[in-house]
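Onboarding guide, step 5: your first structure request.
Type a short instruction followed by the sequence, for example:

Predict the 3D structure of this protein.
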Amino acid sequence: MAVRLVMLGPPGAGKGTQAERFARSRGLARISTGDMLREAVQQGTELGRQAKALMDAGRLVSDDVMIGIVRERLARPDAVRGFVLDGFPRTVAQAHALDEMLDDDSPLIVIDVDVPDETLVRRLGARRICKVCGWTAPPGPLVCEKCGGELVQRRDDGAEVVRERLRVFGNESRPLVDFYQQRPTFRSVDGDQVPEAVAADISAAVASVLGDQR
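The system replies with C-alpha cells like these:
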C-alpha cells in the first residue's frame, strides 16, 4: 500500500524538517511547494511562467496554478509508491482537488504538527536562512550546509511580525483542519518536543492509520 502523507502545521512547527526526515526514512518522494514552484519557474513550464508572473507582481500563487503544479508533480514515477506533501494543500479548494487526484484505495494520511504560539515565536526568532539558496538552518550552523552561503534572519521573523503571521495563519488554516480532522486518517502530534520525539510520534501515527486500513 502506498504511503501518502500530508504534513500540516504553522510556520516554525518543523513540518518541513519532519517531512524530509520521514520521506527519507521510507524512501518516499518529499514534495515541497517551495521546491515545486522554484523548479517550475526554472524549467519555464506554462504553469511556472504563470507562477513567476504572480510572484513578480507580489501576489499569492492562485489555487488553480498550485493545483496544476502539484498534479504535474504527482504524475511522476517517483510519487507512485508514495509521497510526503509539505505546504500543500493550504486551502479547502486545494484539499478537494487533491482528493480528486488521488481517487483510489490508498489512504491519504494527514498529520497536524501542533505547537504553542510562544514556542513558535521563539523558534522563528532564532531561525536563519541562506541568502544564496534559501535553505532554512536549524540552530547551530554558522554557514549554509548545502552551499556554504551566509545565514541571515528573515525580515518577517521578528517577534511582532511572527505573532501577526501566526494569527493570520490560524484564521486561514482552521477551515483546512476542520476539513480533515473528521477523517479516520487524521492525526495530531505534539510538535513541542525534541525532533526525535516528534519523528517517533509521526511514525506511530502513520502506523496507526495503516493498521486501521488493513
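Each response can be followed by summary notes, for example: The CA atoms of residues 108 and 151 lie 36 Å apart.
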